[in-house]
Write a structure and sequence with these properties.
With about 425 residues, this protein is α+β, with helices and mostly antiparallel strands. Helices cover about 30% and strands about 25% of the residues.
Length: about 425
């Protein structure tokens, strides 16, 4: 006979999305159990935070704790064009109470330690961490999810019953695999491979910007300082290009970092690897129906677009907060309990933000000249907002409207003519 636990919310996955959701649920007096099969700390990429992601870390009460994990201060991002030319910088800036831009900072952090810190915070706030693998969604007589079955390492099965199932399983996309949400669709950037590791001996700029090196469409590299000695470096290429080299991952990585862009090659004349070389392939996907009666997803559990501008942690933490708010409204205030999908507004709002980044990336990859013009001179403030993560724009900024007009023209669609407008 299976053991049975009961809780308000069962969360599949103890990464940033799941842990942040649990912290925010605890603030509202709701109990959660996190199911996590891996032991932390574990290696993970996605180490650079947007400005609004940094604000969410502060909102989680982790400002002082950030001083106790390996991290660097991130003042912004610099993107180098093909051949190391035509670079542009986007500083990390916030909007003050008057709506004016002012300088601030965010972080670049080793994800192993950061994710452990966040999971510890959730546990300190009363969340139960259940070690094991989620193997099945439990449903009631109407077919509504009402919990998750977990298999522990010793083979024991545990049923965790809950009012809401929250999928924070990342690219495992647990609820989609179980047939609860929509199917996983290929994204615009799915036929790529990212090959990456951590190195020592790289030459960084004095202010520790996140650096992006562009080679051509869907072929680029990142450079993210993590502490006083260590830098995360990754190369993203079309999968066919990597396969055609017939090299193993380590050989490919070491050769490619010297070839992809001269601004990267001068920074890695003699680096030593401090982690094994790893790869992630075909990572771009979209699940369109990711909420319903009794369930919802956060972050990569429903969509992953492209890592180039560092929105992974941003969406995980932000959607963790949004999910906790939606669940609290549903369980404590009865919001949406008479609706077929009580979390439809949460889903719409999440898609609003991710669609914005999809549009920005489509413009960057398909129309780089127009994109550079927007960033450099025409809509500077609007792009500072976009890169910071202020992407939930019910009324799109002029910069975002311009992006969408360019994208529509690329696709042969009609868009209204935009008149020039002064910056903020």
């Amino acid at each position: 006979m299976n053991s049975t636990f009961k809780t308000d919310v069962v969360i599949v996955g103890g990464g940033p999305g799941g842990a942040a959701s649990a912290v925010f649920l605890a603030e509202k007096g709701l109990k959660a159990i996190i199911i996590e099969k891996e032991e932390f700390p574990r290696f993970h990429i996605g180490e650079s935070m947007t400005g609004e992601c940094g604000n969410m870390v502060r909102r989680l009460g982790l400002t002082e704790a950030m001083d106790n994990v390996p991290r660097t201060i991130k003042p912004g991002v610099i993107v180098y064009g093909q051949g190391g030319k035509n670079s542009f910088e986007i500083p990390v800036m916030r909007r003050n109470e008057a709506g004016e831009l002012e300088q601030t900072f965010t972080w670049q952090v080793r994800r192993g330690e950061f994710d452990q810190m966040l999971l510890d915070k959730a546990q300190q706030d009363g969340t139960v961490i259940l070690r094991g693998k989620a193997v099945k969604v439990l449903t009631d007589e109407t077919g509504t999810p009402c919990g998750v079955q977990v298999r522990r390492d010793d083979g024991q099965l545990i049923d965790v019953l809950a009012e809401v199932v929250l999928d924070a399983s990342g690219q495992t996309t647990f609820l989609s695999t179980q047939g609860i949400t929509g199917e996983k669709e290929r994204g615009n950037y799915d036929r790529q491979i990212a090959i990456y590791t951590h190195v020592k001996g790289a030459k960084r700029d004095e202010e520790d910007h996140t650096l992006i090196f562009y080679e051509k469409k869907n072929h680029w590299a990142w450079f993210i300082p993590l502490d006083d000695e260590t830098v995360s470096i990754g190369v993203v290429t079309p999968s066919d290009y990597y396969r055609d080299t017939k090299e193993d991952m380590r050989e490919f990585f070491l050769r490619e970092i010297h070839k992809i862009n001269p601004q990267l090659s001068v920074r890695v004349p003699d680096v030593s690897l401090v982690e094994e070389v790893r790869a992630t392939s075909n990572y771009s996907y979209h699940i369109r129906r990711f909420t319903g009666k009794g369930f919802l997803c956060v972050g990569d559990a429903h969509r992953f677009i492209d890592p180039i501008f560092s929105f992974g942690l941003h969406f995980a933490l932000t959607e963790g907060k949004l999910a906790a708010d939606a669940i609290a409204g549903y369980l404590l205030d009865g919001v949406g309990q008479d609706q077929e999908n009580p979390f439809a507004e949460y889903e719409r709002y999440c898609e609003l933000g991710m669609n914005t980044i999809q549009d920005v990336l489509d413009c960057f990859w398909e129309q780089p000249t127009a994109f550079a013009f927007f960033v450099h001179s025409r809509y500077v403030d609007d792009f500072i907002d976009l890169f910071a993560g202020r992407v939930y724009q019910e009324q799109p900024s002029r910069g975002l409207q311009a992006v969408r007009k360019v994208n529509a023209k690329q696709l042969g669609l009609q868009q209204p003519v935009l008149e020039p407008q002064p910056q903020h």
